[in-house]
From TrEMBL:
Residues 24-152 form the MgtC/SapB/SrpB/YhiD N-terminal domain. Its main location: membrane. This is MgtC/SapB family protein. Belongs to the MgtC/SapB family. InterPro entries: MgtC/SapB/SrpB/YhiD_fam, MgtC_SapB_SrpB_YhiD_N. It comes from the Bacteria. GO terms for cellular component: plasma membrane. PANTHER family: MAGNESIUM TRANSPORTER YHID-RELATED (PTHR33778:SF1), PROTEIN MGTC (PTHR33778). It holds the Pfam family MgtC. The chain crosses the membrane at residues 20-36, 45-64, 84-102. Keywords: Cell membrane, Membrane, Transmembrane, Transmembrane helix. The lineage of its organism: Bacteria, Bacillati, Actinomycetota, Actinomycetes, Mycobacteriales. It is found in: Cell membrane. It is a multi-pass membrane protein.
Amino acid sequence: MQHWLADPPFFGGPGQGPRQIIELFVAFGLTALIGLEREIQGKSAGLRTQTIVGTAAALILLVSKYGFQDVLVDGLVVVDPSRVAAQIVSGIGFLGAGIIIFRRGSVHGLTTAAAVWESAAIGMAAGSGLLLLACTVTAMHFLIILGFMPLARVLSSRLSGSIRVHVTYAEGRGVMSALLQACERRNWQLAELESDPTGGVLLTLSGNGILTAPTLLAGIDGVTAIRQLDDDPD
């Protein structure tokens, strides 16, 4: 029987060199950036979640690539590295689905779920050695999160759209009538009116320049608070 020292070393063997360590740290760093942005935004899947997912995905892919070197035999045993990557995609899909919730008629968590999926993809890219692609997608993430939102707001302010707002107001002062009249004057359609058990009402409004509605409605006498409910706040 061969002595255990003749076996491949525990450290520094195939797939455990400086390149793989760099790939893990790239996955760690890039997904930590995404997680930090989510953390600053106060989202549920923040710094720790995104970094763990991305780094673990990179490790799993490295295992898929290099973890079977000691059992491979030329012409006899063949391993397909893509099989583990496919399982990562399926597993992260279930994790993302668990983040998405439906509350008070609106969907929450879509962006966070997508960011978790993205972190896994970045980790997989880093783990497979595609470092430039991993860095590029990380840059794209911040372009999407930081750049698209102002653009979307500008477009929504000029084009027709819809918003959902929570309005709290003083009773007995005809505030609801004033709210409806203000919407009618600007040709905003009231798609939904719902009483909130915690107080106030939920309004779904649509029309041109609808993003100015919260500011305008907040100026009505008797309105004590108004808050826009994002369709995808996470």
